[in-house]
Task: structure prediction
Amino acid sequence: MSDAIGLPYTEEHEMFRRTARRFFTSECAPHQGDWAEAGQVPRGIWNRAGELGLLCPTIPAEYSGGGGDTLYSIVLMEEQVRAGVVAPMLSLHNDVVAPYVACYGTEQQKATLLPRMATGEMVGAIGMTEPGAGSDLQAIGTRARRDGDEYVINGQKTFISHGHMADVIVLAAKTGPAPDDRKISLILFETAGAVGFRRGRHLEKLGQHSADTAELFFDDVRVPVSALLGGTEGRGFGQLMDRLVEERLMTGVGAVVFIERALELTIEYVKQRKAFGQRVIDFQNSRFKLAEASTEATVLRVFLDRCIRDFMNGQLDAQTAAMLKWWSTEQQCAIVDECVQLHGGYGYMLDYPIANMWLDARISKIYGGSNEIMKEIIARTL
Ligand SMILES: Cc1cc2nc3c(=O)[nH]c(=O)nc-3n(C[C@H](O)[C@H](O)[C@H](O)COP(=O)(O)OP(=O)(O)OC[C@H]3O[C@@H](n4cnc5c(N)ncnc54)[C@H](O)[C@@H]3O)c2cc1C
Result:
């Protein structure tokens, strides 16, 4: 893997990379077709990832995590994307959900949830989006009303990744008095045995078929007040905004490696495909398109590595993370589209990885904060 600005990878990171590579190439990649048909991965693959130490690599060792730095998460994301594996979405579990508990959780929340997330006994999800509120998070309607030592939750979520499989969901809900309160809190909702909680159908998507995406329904669901993340109401919006920086960094990592893989596959293809008595790569148009895309990939890699370094030093701000997210995903979709074009008709055939990559890429401009919202975040600071 190229490392443009000398990130501090060690021999331990490389050992971890080898384990991750074996896991994704031997235990996940061969099953992507079956898992796509099933609309989800088998539960056991999470336990297997836990056994191999691939879950919660950056969570402190005292909570059974790997105790490693961000580069472990980067290595995992790189190997997953390079292997062409969509699900299980380890980064969502490792870099999005577990850190909420680790960063803001009470001692009891950390001690009860994190060790089980590290083994794969519990799979995590994050529930923000609702049918009537996506980009405008403050418009969510899900409520958690205090009733003695419990909250009573009512509402609906949609588009929740891992929603069918999740055992713990970081759930965004309003905890202030209805109807106009904007106070959002996060609840660590454990799904096992929850009365009044229901998961809807598997949502059918354009791509990322092996990742389960669900609607969730809450009908007078009772949880103890101890499930409130961090124990103080009304902090949810700030917690979400803070954590989204890392989520956007990881989206950037995924997008850049995705571009690198698309280019590798395409260069290999155009070198062997012939038309008009010559290789497709020998047409000037092919060489120029690939030269442009390779330049873009190199520029992005340098920017990404700078963002990784800044994140590790606690200096990646929301504006720069938004720049990385929108630009890398915009390029991801544009470049994979060119790669399909260079494959000709075969690029439209699902037997070819590039066709699946085209389908899988599209969502990256929408989730994790749409690219329009990214531009709003950037523009606000100008
Ligand atoms: C496959 C998939 C997985 C997902 N996983 C999760 C998950 O795990 N958890 C979760 O909570 N959510 C998840 N989401 C939801 C995702 O984050 C939202 O779809 C996204 O934030 C956009 O919200 P929306 O769909 O309601 O679109 P809307 O907010 O309705 O936006 C519609 C359009 O309007 C634009 N727009 C909105 N506001 C503005 C503005 N202020 N300025 C300019 N343009 C604007 C948007 O950019 C978009 O183009 C997932 C979605 C998908 C499809």
Q: What stands out?
A: The longest strand covers residues 150-161. The CA atoms of residues 53 and 66 lie 7 Å apart. The chain has a mean pLDDT of 96.
